[in-house]
Automatic annotation (TrEMBL), chain A:
Subunit structure: Heterotrimer of A, B and C subunits.
Function: Allows the formation of correctly charged Gln-tRNA(Gln) through the transamidation of misacylated Glu-tRNA(Gln) in organisms which lack glutaminyl-tRNA synthetase. The reaction takes place in the presence of glutamine and ATP through an activated gamma-phospho-Glu-tRNA(Gln).
Domain Amidase, chain residue ranges per copy: 21-463
Xref: InterPro entries: Amidase, Amidase_dom, AS_sf, GatA
Gene name linked to the record: gatA
Full protein name: Glutamyl-tRNA(Gln) amidotransferase subunit A
Residues making up the signal peptide according to the UniProt record: none
An example Gene Ontology molecular-function term: glutaminyl-tRNA synthase (glutamine-hydrolyzing) activity
GO cellular component: glutamyl-tRNA(Gln) amidotransferase complex
Active site: 75 (charge relay system), 150 (charge relay system), 174 (acyl-ester intermediate)
The EC number(s) this enzyme carries: 6.3.5.7
One annotated GO biological process: translation
Length: 486, 471
């Protein structure tokens, strides 16, 4: 197994390696692999080296935080003061925010070393990261396949060991699905557990920032560092977790009630289904109680998700008009002409599709039939989850109905592509936490992801269950050879 | 043909909170362009709004002062439209759950103009056209507003003006806005249609946007009513559209660019949680409200007995009313206090604004000390006025200008009884006066002056003596 965050932190403290040396090692690996993988879209090596020097100073002074000096990456939709942040959209070409997202502010204060911003679907809209204006990142495990999306770059850099960890964002599965495709761990926290301030919005009531890591323990460490209420985000909350989430990991799972809902397994690739069933048996053998439960409203989750996310997106993306920042068309006859041309040229097809869909469902005459109805069903889904969590501690489900698609896969229409989010979107609708952990490989050698879903602010239980599985199941996927050799 | 005017007014009022509605930037008017701004109020990608609780409190204040019901549950909506002064391409406002509903303003006639709703929202930035370019100043973006929507209960130009005037006065009184129409901190949109008297149905209405003075409201209503009447009389139909009032030509014309079937695609803002307002808070705000201006006016007339004209001059400026009541609390008389304010203090103030600000150098108790001298007839009104003027100029107290020896000190009653005493004490002199020896009256003067230490008003005394002797 490759070194986790705790091991790296130990090496830094034992002076086995300095933050500067560690950062250089990652930079070398990125220079070697990134031209192929296209996982990073903006590299921040100069600031990384400076941060590493400062980290070494902090380490020398003692009492440095755990993440001090550890090189990492941020998805390109998380604002970084003075550093290019584009959401991988032409419309935000060369955009440099003048403030830091709260998550980055927190990590920076801990001495984190930012290597760069990672590739993603344009404005986080997509399931393959292929809608990026920089072209798709490649799956390090097999470069003929996609990384998944939208946090594809964040999954790829962790998989290829081009960062010790990364942050992504998850609106309908955008952390968990690429984690599953690339064979890494991805945690989508409870809605409100992590501040969204500085996360460029897609679907504001669904978006949540979370970590992508090599292990469940690392996910717990990074989540611990970024969580917490923020006075700049009214939808965030201060929740009192057990003092240290990393310490909860080793608790016994005996008696843990694990729910299995048939609705999560309908239409799932049989190879994936059997991997999840094996995992369920492993839990059962170790004393967990398996509960068969039902979530009938789940079949409505997908349309509800696409209505609500697109409605919010259509409003959130209205501000990209070429007036204040980002791309502006080169020739125009009036302000209206400028706005229309800027948006026509600046947005890609998938973003335009979702803006149009969202505009439509909010239009007078259609609002009640679509948006309002979707909100009512959302409440019903929430109620069903709440009822289920009276009987269960976690739910087990596949992360995606399939493993990674081949690049440029033309077999799927946009709607078929949307269907691949079927297992992840209900979690965002209900605002509950979920983690994806690798649970095997398919016949092609592509990783399969298992999803563990918890109750609101039930991250400790989710992490505990995931950690148990990771430790007990052993090496379920192949080790990626490459990246940093530390 | 005769038509009935059906008119409702939407009023935007900028709230006088120190900071903006969703961020900590100052709301101060003016300033270098784009200096009162931050990521939130310029709609930077990723920035999020935080609702300023003061704004909610101010809006509740307005609602209570306008007799509204306060909704205990409320939320913010997004109103989506594209315009360069709106940096997020949506305005955060309230659509179907306004903070306040169902209030009214009572006109002098006793007629009540219903208030449909009051909601809170953010102001937009400002476009500045200069040297052939258009610049945007976002200093005003995010300044808190309330929108007060009236029922279509207004049926004349005079009522329209009176409604707006009363609204302005009440809002200023409760201290939530300066309501300066010229500076745009109060802006009125007038909706107007005509119908035949007795017709239960409304006609097609037009909306006259952004009227910026009270008298223009009256004129605009008249002009638009005439315009619509001419069209209807000629057999035409009214087109529902947005209009502009041009004060130079006193005419109402359609605005060029606005189409009228805007679909704002309102939906609840996911960045701001639904909020509830506890009833205790509402009660607390209710208790903190000052006596409202028209209640005050009634009290000044009916309880204090002030003549209507005087009462109306004092009540409309909250600071003046406070000064007036402060002097009364120190024991000054209603009549002299009111007359000295209106006659002397106001003669130093040329504009409404000065009266509104009421920046004077003396306190209510300094003022009361002077008024009481006049009340007790220790100085006469002429002396009181000239002394007050000196006090206003210097800020000094009455003792600086009126020494004990200057005081008349003798009331009319006292003087009359002294005169009677003088007559009784000098029967010979009285007889002499009666027989034509006029100088004999000096004997009585001497008596009175001796008794009063020379402070009696000698002319008054003479008149009294002659009257008494003559009887």
């Amino acid at each position: 197994m490759r070194a986790g965050i705790s091991e790296l932190a130990k090496k830094l403290r034992n002076r086995e390696v300095s933050a500067v040396e560690l950062t250089k090692a990652y930079i070398d690996a990125i220079e070697k692999l990134n031209p192929t993988l296209n996982a990073y879209v903006h590299l921040t090596f100069d600031t990384a080296m400076k941060a590493a020097q400062e980290a070494d100073q902090m380490l020398k002074e003692g009492d440095a935080p755990l993440l001090c000096g550890i090189p990492m990456a941020l998805k390109d939709n998380i604002c970084t003061d003075g550093l290019t942040t584009t959401c991988c959209s032409k419309i935000l070409k060369d955009f440099k925010p003048y403030y830091d997202a709260t998550v980055w502010e927190k990590l920076k204060a801990q001495g984190a070393v930012l290597l760069g911003k990672t590739n993603m679907d344009e404005f986080a809209m997509g399931s393959t990261s292929e809608t990026s204006c920089y072209g798709a990142p490649l799956n390090p495990r097999n470069t003929n396949y996609v990384t998944g999306g939208s946090s594809g770059g964040s999954a790829a850099v962790v998989c290829a060991n081009l960062a010790a960890y990364s942050l992504g964002s998850d609106t309908g599965g955008s952390i968990r699905q690429p984690a599953s495709f690339c064979g890494v761990v991805g945690l989508k926290p409870t809605y409100g557990a992590v501040s969204r301030y500085g996360l460029i919005a897609y679907g504001s009531s669904l978006d949540q920032i979370g970590p992508l890591t090599n292990s469940v323990k690392d996910a717990a460490i990074v989540f611990e560092a970024i969580k917490g209420g923020d006075k700049r985000d009214q939808t965030s909350a201060d929740y009192e977790y057990d003092s240290s989430l990393a310490e909860c990991l080793d608790r016994d799972i005996k008696g843990m009630r694990i729910g299995v809902a048939q609705e999560f397994f309908d239409g799932i690739n049989p190879e994936i289904k059997s991997k999840i069933e094996e995992a369920i048996k492993l839990f059962e053998r170790n004393g967990a109680v398996i509960e068969n439960i039902s979530l009938p409203a789940l079949k409505l989750a997908l349309p509800v998700y696409y209505i609500i996310a697109c409605a919010e997106a259509s409003s959130n993306l209205g501000r990209y008009d070429g007036i204040r920042y980002g791309y502006r068309t080169s020739s125009y006859t009036s302000i209206e002409d400028m706005i229309v041309k800027t948006r026509s040229e600046g947005f890609g097809d998938e973003v335009k599709r979702r803006i149009m869909l969202g505009t439509y469902v909010l239009s007078s005459g259609y609002y009640d039939a679509y948006y309002k109805k979707a909100c009512l069903i959302r409440e019903e889904i929430n109620r069903e989850f709440a009822t289920v969590f009276e009987k269960c501690d976690v739910l087990i489900a596949p992360t995606a109905p399939n493993t990674a698609f081949p690049l440029n896969y033309k077999g799927a229409s946009p709607v078929e592509m949307y269907l691949s989010d079927i297992c992840t979107v209900p979690v965002n609708i209900a605002g509950v936490p979920a983690i994806s952990v690798p649970c095997g490989e398919d016949a092609k050698g592509l990783p399969v992801g298992m999803q563990l879903i918890g109750r609101r602010f039930g991250e400790a239980t989710v992490l505990q269950a995931a950690h148990f599985y990771e430790q007990s199941a052993g090496q379920v996927i192949g080790v990626y050879e490459g990246g940093v050799g530390i | 043909m005769n038509y009935e005017i059906v008119c409702g007014i939407e009023t935007h009022i900028e709230l006088a909170t120190k900071t903006k509605i969703f961020c900590g930037c100052t709301t101060e008017f003016g300033g270098e362009p784009n200096t009162h701004c931050c990521p939130v109020c310029t709609g930077q990608p990723g920035a999020l709004p935080i609702l300023n609780q003061k704004v909610v409190q101010y809006a509740i204040k307005a609602g209570l002062a306008l007799n509204c019901k306060i909704n205990t549950k409320s939320h913010m909506d997004r109103k989506n439209y594209v315009y360069p002064d709106l940096p997020k391409a949506y305005q955060i406002s309230q659509y179907d759950e306004p903070l306040c509903e169902n209030g009214y303003i009572e006109l002098d006639s006793g007629k009540r103009i219903g208030i449909t709703r009051i909601h809170i929202e953010e102001d937009a930035g400002k476009l500045v056209h200069e040297d052939g370019y258009t610049y945007i100043d976002y200093n005003r973006g995010g300044v808190p507003l309330i929108e007060i929507v009236s029922e279509p209960d207004i049926s004349s130009a005079e009522e329209a003006k009176e409604y707006a005037e009363k609204l302005q006065l009440i809002m200023r009184y409760i201290g939530i806005s300066d309501c300066k129409m010229q500076e745009g901190s109060m802006r009125c949109d007038v909706n107007l249609s005509l119908r035949k008297p007795g017709d239960p149905n409304f006609g097609v209405r037009t909306e006259i946007k952004n009227i910026n003075s009270l008298s223009f409201i009256q004129k605009a209503v008249m002009a638009e009513a005439e315009r619509q009447a001419d069209i209807l009389d000629a057999g035409g139909t009214i087109v529902q559209q947005t209009m502009r009032y041009d004060e130079a030509t006193n005419s109402v014309t359609p605005m060029r660019d606005k189409e009228n079937s805007d679909d704002y695609r309102y939906f609840p803002d996911p960045d701001i949680l639904r909020f509830s307002i506890d009833e205790e808070k509402v009660e607390e705000i209710q208790r903190s409200l000052p006596e409202l201006p028209f209640d005050k006016l009634k009290r000044y007339m009916n309880v204090l007995g002030l003549p209507e004209a005087t009462a109306k001059q004092i009540f409309r400026y909250r600071k003046v009313a406070e000064f007036f009541e402060g002097a009364l609390a120190e024991g000054a008389s209603v009549k002299n206090t009111a007359n000295l304010i209106v006659g002397t203090i106001f003669s130093n103030m040329d504009t409404e604004e000065e009266k509104e600000l009421f920046a004077i150098k003396i306190s209510a108790s300094q003022f009361a000390a002077l008024v009481k001298l006049a009340d007790e007839k220790k100085i006469n009104i002429g002396v009181a006025q000239s002394t007050l003027q000196k006090m206003l100029e210097t800020g000094k107290s009455v003792e600086e200008f009126i020494k004990p020896e200057d005081l008349v000190g003798i009331s009319d009653d006292v003087l009359e009884s002294l005169c009677k005493e003088a007559i009784d004490a000098n029967p010979k002199a009285v007889a002499d006066v009666r027989s034509g020896k006029d100088k004999a009256i000096n004997t009585m003067f001497g008596y009175i002056m001796k008794k009063t230490g020379g402070k009696a008003d000698i002319r008054k005394a003479e008149a009294l003596l002659r009257k008494l002797i003559g009887e």
